[in-house]
Protein backbone atom coordinates (compact mmCIF):
# COMPACT_ATOMS: atom_id res chain seq x y z
CA UNK A 1 0.00 0.00 0.00
CA UNK A 2 1.02 3.60 -0.50
CA UNK A 3 0.40 6.70 1.56
CA UNK A 4 1.31 10.28 0.63
CA UNK A 5 3.28 12.26 3.21
CA UNK A 6 5.33 15.42 2.77
CA UNK A 7 4.92 15.35 -1.03
CA UNK A 8 6.27 11.81 -1.42
CA UNK A 9 4.74 8.36 -1.37
CA UNK A 10 5.71 5.83 1.27
CA UNK A 11 5.16 2.15 0.61
CA UNK A 12 4.04 0.09 3.58
CA UNK A 13 2.52 -3.26 4.45
CA UNK A 14 0.04 -3.94 7.24
CA UNK A 15 -0.65 -7.38 8.71
CA UNK A 16 -2.04 -8.87 11.90
CA UNK A 17 -4.32 -7.43 14.53
CA UNK A 18 -3.97 -5.83 17.89
CA UNK A 19 -1.92 -2.91 19.21
CA UNK A 20 -0.01 -1.05 16.44
CA UNK A 21 3.71 -1.78 16.00
CA UNK A 22 5.86 -0.01 13.40
CA UNK A 23 9.07 -1.60 12.09
CA UNK A 24 11.71 0.56 10.38
CA UNK A 25 14.64 -0.86 8.39
CA UNK A 26 18.20 0.42 8.03
CA UNK A 27 20.23 2.21 5.38
CA UNK A 28 19.93 0.78 1.87
CA UNK A 29 17.34 -1.80 2.91
CA UNK A 30 13.58 -2.19 2.71
CA UNK A 31 10.69 -3.58 4.71
CA UNK A 32 11.35 -7.16 3.58
CA UNK A 33 14.27 -7.59 6.01
CA UNK A 34 11.52 -8.10 8.59
CA UNK A 35 9.63 -10.92 6.84
CA UNK A 36 10.51 -13.52 9.49
CA UNK A 37 9.90 -11.03 12.30
CA UNK A 38 6.49 -10.06 10.94
CA UNK A 39 5.34 -13.68 10.66
CA UNK A 40 5.87 -14.01 14.39
CA UNK A 41 4.63 -10.62 15.56
CA UNK A 42 1.45 -10.52 13.46
CA UNK A 43 -0.16 -12.97 15.88
CA UNK A 44 0.06 -10.35 18.61
CA UNK A 45 0.10 -6.91 16.96
CA UNK A 46 -1.02 -4.95 13.93
CA UNK A 47 2.38 -4.68 12.28
CA UNK A 48 3.28 -1.87 9.89
CA UNK A 49 6.50 -2.25 7.89
CA UNK A 50 7.52 0.86 5.97
CA UNK A 51 9.97 1.58 3.18
CA UNK A 52 11.51 4.92 4.18
CA UNK A 53 11.88 7.65 1.55
CA UNK A 54 14.39 6.76 -1.14
CA UNK A 55 14.23 3.07 -0.24
CA UNK A 56 12.34 0.06 -1.55
CA UNK A 57 9.08 0.96 -3.25
CA UNK A 58 8.80 4.44 -1.73
CA UNK A 59 9.43 7.60 -3.73
CA UNK A 60 13.02 8.14 -4.86
CA UNK A 61 14.74 11.27 -3.58
CA UNK A 62 17.95 13.07 -4.55
CA UNK A 63 19.15 13.43 -0.96
CA UNK A 64 18.52 11.67 2.34
CA UNK A 65 18.23 13.39 5.70
CA UNK A 66 17.18 11.80 8.97
CA UNK A 67 15.00 14.71 10.05
CA UNK A 68 12.94 14.46 6.86
CA UNK A 69 12.63 10.70 7.28
CA UNK A 70 11.43 11.23 10.85
CA UNK A 71 8.83 13.77 9.70
CA UNK A 72 7.57 11.20 7.17
CA UNK A 73 6.95 8.68 9.95
CA UNK A 74 5.30 11.34 12.11
CA UNK A 75 2.91 12.13 9.24
CA UNK A 76 2.34 8.40 8.62
CA UNK A 77 1.29 7.88 12.24
CA UNK A 78 -1.08 10.84 12.17
CA UNK A 79 -2.61 10.08 8.77
CA UNK A 80 -3.43 6.53 9.86
CA UNK A 81 -4.55 7.81 13.28
CA UNK A 82 -2.34 5.34 15.14
CA UNK A 83 -2.67 5.91 18.87
CA UNK A 84 0.76 5.85 20.55
CA UNK A 85 2.15 2.88 18.61
CA UNK A 86 5.20 0.86 19.55
CA UNK A 87 8.11 1.63 17.23
CA UNK A 88 11.08 -0.62 16.50
CA UNK A 89 13.94 0.78 14.45
CA UNK A 90 17.06 -0.97 13.20
CA UNK A 91 20.14 1.18 12.50
CA UNK A 92 18.81 4.17 10.49
CA UNK A 93 15.33 3.19 11.60
CA UNK A 94 16.48 3.53 15.19
CA UNK A 95 17.92 6.98 14.51
CA UNK A 96 14.52 7.97 13.12
CA UNK A 97 12.94 6.63 16.31
CA UNK A 98 15.27 8.73 18.47
CA UNK A 99 14.46 11.89 16.51
CA UNK A 100 10.73 11.23 16.77
CA UNK A 101 10.95 10.68 20.52
CA UNK A 102 12.98 13.86 20.99
CA UNK A 103 10.69 16.11 18.95
CA UNK A 104 7.36 14.43 19.73
CA UNK A 105 7.59 13.05 23.28
CA UNK A 106 3.97 11.87 23.38
CA UNK A 107 3.88 10.21 19.97
CA UNK A 108 4.98 6.66 20.85
CA UNK A 109 4.13 4.17 23.56
CA UNK A 110 7.58 2.54 23.56
CA UNK A 111 10.73 2.85 21.47
CA UNK A 112 13.03 -0.08 20.71
CA UNK A 113 16.22 0.60 18.77
CA UNK A 114 19.04 -1.61 17.53
CA UNK A 115 22.54 -0.65 16.41
CA UNK A 116 22.13 3.13 16.52
CA UNK A 117 24.58 6.00 16.61
CA UNK A 118 24.00 9.65 17.41
CA UNK A 119 26.77 10.92 15.14
CA UNK A 120 29.10 9.39 12.52
CA UNK A 121 31.90 9.01 15.08
CA UNK A 122 29.73 6.48 16.88
CA UNK A 123 30.84 4.00 14.22
CA UNK A 124 33.97 1.97 14.85
CA UNK A 125 36.94 3.72 13.25
CA UNK A 126 37.71 0.93 10.78
CA UNK A 127 34.14 0.97 9.50
CA UNK A 128 34.05 4.76 9.27
CA UNK A 129 37.24 4.70 7.18
CA UNK A 130 35.79 1.99 4.94
CA UNK A 131 32.58 3.95 4.38
CA UNK A 132 34.60 7.05 3.48
CA UNK A 133 36.57 5.07 0.91
CA UNK A 134 33.40 3.59 -0.58
CA UNK A 135 31.78 7.02 -0.76
CA UNK A 136 34.84 8.46 -2.51
CA UNK A 137 34.20 6.08 -5.40
CA UNK A 138 30.43 5.59 -5.37
CA UNK A 139 29.15 8.98 -4.16
CA UNK A 140 25.78 7.52 -3.16
CA UNK A 141 23.27 9.40 -1.04
CA UNK A 142 23.13 6.45 1.38
CA UNK A 143 26.84 6.66 2.24
CA UNK A 144 26.73 10.47 2.29
CA UNK A 145 23.99 10.25 4.91
CA UNK A 146 26.03 7.92 7.14
CA UNK A 147 29.11 10.14 6.91
CA UNK A 148 27.35 13.44 7.67
CA UNK A 149 24.47 12.56 9.96
CA UNK A 150 22.91 12.18 12.49
CA UNK A 151 23.82 15.01 14.83
CA UNK A 152 22.02 14.12 18.05
CA UNK A 153 23.45 15.70 21.19
CA UNK A 154 23.49 14.38 24.75
CA UNK A 155 21.06 17.13 25.74
CA UNK A 156 18.68 15.91 23.06
CA UNK A 157 18.89 12.32 24.33
CA UNK A 158 18.05 13.51 27.84
CA UNK A 159 14.74 14.91 26.55
CA UNK A 160 13.47 11.43 25.66
CA UNK A 161 10.72 10.37 28.06
CA UNK A 162 9.20 7.39 26.24
CA UNK A 163 10.26 3.94 27.58
CA UNK A 164 13.31 3.07 25.48
CA UNK A 165 14.99 -0.28 24.89
CA UNK A 166 18.39 -0.40 23.21
CA UNK A 167 20.04 -3.45 21.64
CA UNK A 168 23.42 -3.94 20.05
CA UNK A 169 25.47 -6.88 18.82
CA UNK A 170 28.69 -7.68 20.65
CA UNK A 171 30.40 -7.51 17.22
CA UNK A 172 28.48 -4.45 16.03
CA UNK A 173 29.82 -1.66 13.82
CA UNK A 174 28.77 0.72 16.60
CA UNK A 175 31.41 1.48 19.23
CA UNK A 176 30.65 -0.08 22.61
CA UNK A 177 31.31 3.14 24.53
CA UNK A 178 29.01 5.02 22.15
CA UNK A 179 26.15 2.61 22.83
CA UNK A 180 26.77 3.05 26.56
CA UNK A 181 26.69 6.82 26.14
CA UNK A 182 23.26 6.59 24.49
CA UNK A 183 21.98 4.24 27.17
CA UNK A 184 23.33 6.35 30.03
CA UNK A 185 21.74 9.55 28.73
CA UNK A 186 18.23 8.33 27.88
CA UNK A 187 16.37 8.33 31.19
CA UNK A 188 15.33 4.86 32.40
CA UNK A 189 16.43 3.14 29.19
CA UNK A 190 17.34 -0.54 29.11
CA UNK A 191 20.27 -2.07 27.22
CA UNK A 192 20.62 -5.61 25.88
CA UNK A 193 23.76 -6.91 24.19
CA UNK A 194 23.31 -9.81 21.78
CA UNK A 195 26.44 -11.91 22.19
CA UNK A 196 28.30 -13.13 19.10
CA UNK A 197 26.05 -11.07 16.83
CA UNK A 198 27.08 -8.33 14.41
CA UNK A 199 25.13 -5.25 13.33
CA UNK A 200 22.24 -7.07 11.71
CA UNK A 201 22.75 -10.82 12.16
CA UNK A 202 20.10 -11.09 14.89
CA UNK A 203 17.66 -8.88 12.98
CA UNK A 204 17.78 -9.45 9.22
CA UNK A 205 16.03 -12.72 8.31
CA UNK A 206 16.20 -13.78 11.95
CA UNK A 207 13.61 -14.63 14.57
CA UNK A 208 15.80 -13.39 17.44
CA UNK A 209 14.65 -9.78 17.39
CA UNK A 210 11.01 -10.89 17.17
CA UNK A 211 11.41 -12.97 20.32
CA UNK A 212 13.03 -10.03 22.09
CA UNK A 213 10.23 -7.68 21.03
CA UNK A 214 7.64 -10.12 22.29
CA UNK A 215 9.47 -10.44 25.57
CA UNK A 216 9.35 -6.72 26.32
CA UNK A 217 6.18 -5.61 24.51
CA UNK A 218 3.64 -8.29 25.36
CA UNK A 219 3.95 -7.42 29.03
CA UNK A 220 3.44 -3.71 28.28
CA UNK A 221 0.59 -4.49 25.89
CA UNK A 222 -1.22 -6.56 28.49
CA UNK A 223 -1.11 -3.63 30.90
CA UNK A 224 -2.98 -1.37 28.51
TrEMBL record:
Gene Ontology molecular-function annotations: serine hydrolase activity
Residue ranges of every copy of the AB hydrolase-1 domain listed in the record: 19-133
Coiled coil: none
Lineage top rank: taxon: Bacteria
Pfam families reported in the protein's UniProt record: Abhydrolase_1 (PF00561)
Transmembrane segments: none
Provenance organism: Clostridium sartagoforme
Keyword line: Hydrolase
Family annotation (InterPro entries): AB_hydrolase_1, AB_hydrolase_fold
Protein name: Alpha/beta hydrolase
UniProt-listed SUPFAM superfamilies: alpha/beta-Hydrolases
Hydrolase keyword on record: yes
Amino acid sequence: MFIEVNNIKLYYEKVGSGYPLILLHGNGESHDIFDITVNILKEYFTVYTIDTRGHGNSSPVSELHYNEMAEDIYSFIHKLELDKPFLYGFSDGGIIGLLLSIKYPNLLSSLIISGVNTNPNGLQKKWLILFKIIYKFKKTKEYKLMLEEPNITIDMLRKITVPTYITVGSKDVIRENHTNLIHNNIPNSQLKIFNNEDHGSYIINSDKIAKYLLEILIMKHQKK
